[in-house]
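Retry 2 of 3 after timeout on previous attempt. Resubmitting structure tokens to design endpoint.
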């Protein structure tokens, strides 16, 4: 009897020990090392909103206009954009081009990029009226600041963030002009809406008139703010042509051309393994050689999917997403690099 009780007690103790060990390992996969905080990995801390595609139209060749509706959508201001989570899980950024006064409704336009990374193709092929999607609340890094006058320059689908700005500038009584370039009239959305502004708007289809003439920007009145959204060469040209380059505001959805990159070493803090990041590759590419399940999406520094905590080392930030506070201890692996020779990540 005593032996049976002893065996039962030992078995119970073993069960309790195993349970405690499982709990301890769950708190720290590297046990018996100290537990680390949960890493920032594979998600953005920003909340997701659920919206329905209420309408879809095609305002120009290769462009779809999507009206997204849901009760209680957050307000937004001209220049704002949203991160749209496509059905496949890809995250893409689109400027809001509707009217901020319309509650419960966002409008975005998507140009099809045949040789792109698949997001625009998915939007064109799969987003129909009735489709439900998720998106992150609007952010605005292209805010329309008060000014007596504005010079707007848009290239192609870069007209989308500018449209609400024109309405706001008009309502404020400011002087403004718009120079709108594109490949052809058929490819340029919103021409009918822009025609209502008369000679304030200059439309320059490349197949008819060549490239836009930017020389008037050099003669802009003092205090004029210049807002430009479009291809990188256009934005560079606008900055060079402006009378005051500090008055130029740019919106881009591709990373700015970076200076020559240097190789560096990334240490994975949770395992101690290291990987070399070549001058011609991203930290994300290098890390995925060791951790192939590391999540990512846009690969351009906008969506935040590859945000990770930095445990040691300085960072050269090249993203268009993180706040100054977030940049103090994290980075986006797809575009940002080490400021020195080595980084330690919470991976």
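Retry 2 succeeded. Sequence:
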């Amino acid at each position: 009897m005593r032996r049976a009780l002893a065996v039962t007690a030992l078995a119970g103790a073993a069960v309790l020990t195993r349970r405690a060990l499982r709990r301890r390992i769950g708190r720290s996969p590297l046990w018996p090392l100290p537990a680390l905080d949960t890493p920032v990995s594979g998600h953005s801390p920003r909340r997701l909103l659920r919206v329905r595609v209420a309408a879809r139209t095609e305002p120009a060749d290769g462009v779809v206009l999507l009206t997204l509706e849901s009760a209680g959508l957050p307000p937004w201001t001209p220049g704002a954009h949203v991160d749209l989570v496509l059905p496949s899980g890809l995250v893409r950024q689109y400027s809001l081009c509707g009217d901020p006064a319309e509650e419960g409704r966002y409008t975005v336009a998507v140009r099809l990029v045949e040789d792109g990374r698949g997001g625009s193709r998915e939007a064109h092929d799969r987003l129909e009226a009735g489709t439900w999607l998720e998106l992150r609340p609007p952010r605005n890094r292209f805010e329309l600041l008060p000014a007596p006058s504005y010079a707007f320059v848009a290239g192609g689908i870069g007209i989308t963030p500018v449209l609400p700005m024109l309405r706001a500038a008009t309502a404020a009584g400011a002087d403004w002009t718009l120079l709108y370039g594109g490949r052809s009239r058929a490819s340029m959305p919103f021409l009918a809406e822009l025609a209502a502004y008369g000679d304030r708007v200059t439309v320059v289809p490349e197949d008819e008139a060549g490239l836009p003439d930017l020389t008037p920007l050099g003669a802009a009145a003092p205090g004029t703010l210049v807002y430009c959204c479009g291809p990188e060469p256009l934005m560079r040209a606008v900055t060079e042509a402006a009378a005051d380059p500090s008055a130029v505001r740019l919106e881009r959805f591709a990373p700015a051309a970076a200076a020559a990159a240097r190789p560096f070493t990334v240490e994975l803090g949770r395992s101690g393994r290291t990987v070399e990041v070549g001058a011609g590759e991203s930290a994300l590419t290098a890390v995925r050689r060791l951790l192939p399940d590391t999540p990512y999406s846009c690969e351009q520094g906008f969506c935040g999917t590859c945000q990770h905590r930095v445990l040691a080392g300085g960072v050269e930030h090249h993203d268009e997403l993180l706040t100054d506070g977030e940049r103090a201890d994290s980075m986006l692996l797809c575009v940002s690099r080490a400021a020195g020779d080595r980084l330690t990540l919470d991976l």
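Attempt log closed. The CA atoms of residues 215 and 241 lie 6 Å apart.
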